[in-house]
Amino acid sequence: MKGNITMNDKIVVYYKVARIDLGENVKLPGEKIALIEEFESGSGTYEQNGVIRASGVGKVTIDFKKRIVKVDQTKKAPLPKAGDTVVGFIDMVPGNMVSMRILYVNNKKSEAGFTAISLMRSGRGRRGVMFKVGDLVRAKVVSLLNANIHVDFRDSNLGVIYTVCHSCGGNVVRVDGRVKCIECGTTEERKLAEDYGKVNLLLQGN
User: Fold this and answer.
1) The CATH number of 2-20+80-204 is which of 1.25.40.10, 3.40.50.300, 2.40.50.140, 1.10.260.40?
2) pTM
């Protein structure tokens, strides 16, 4: 199934975002699942220094009766790799880091529930965190380290591609490197992609 998301249709944007089940417990290879004091290592996992970790990409399944934890890899999702372009929404902004939930990898829909992180450094011309929870963003995967997908927003075509006012939820317009609400007048800083306000993203279903 194919569909279009345009900057003029935020209802469609948030409908697509809402389809991702945030409760999906997807683990990456090497990611910690539990301690051996809590469960036994089952299929799709391995034990290392008392820690049970995922041996592949998949969803965690726990058998509380038998105290066994496993990772179901029956529906393997391709793991984003360095150089890939990902689109998703910001779901957390802890300190000087941002976390994004990936919805599309190279314009292809991904329902694996992957998350990615990026460290926002300030100083020497850098302005620190320039995103807010709920922003729809485009980023580039730069590495896969410590069972985490690391992304970057520095290129001109990367950053926020859609957002709304975080004070009143109204529509916003671009004003230089900021967005201004046309309803309440609030101005907020963002790291905007160069095509912000002009995006017509073709989404490809499974």
Assistant:
1) 2.40.50.140
2) 0.65
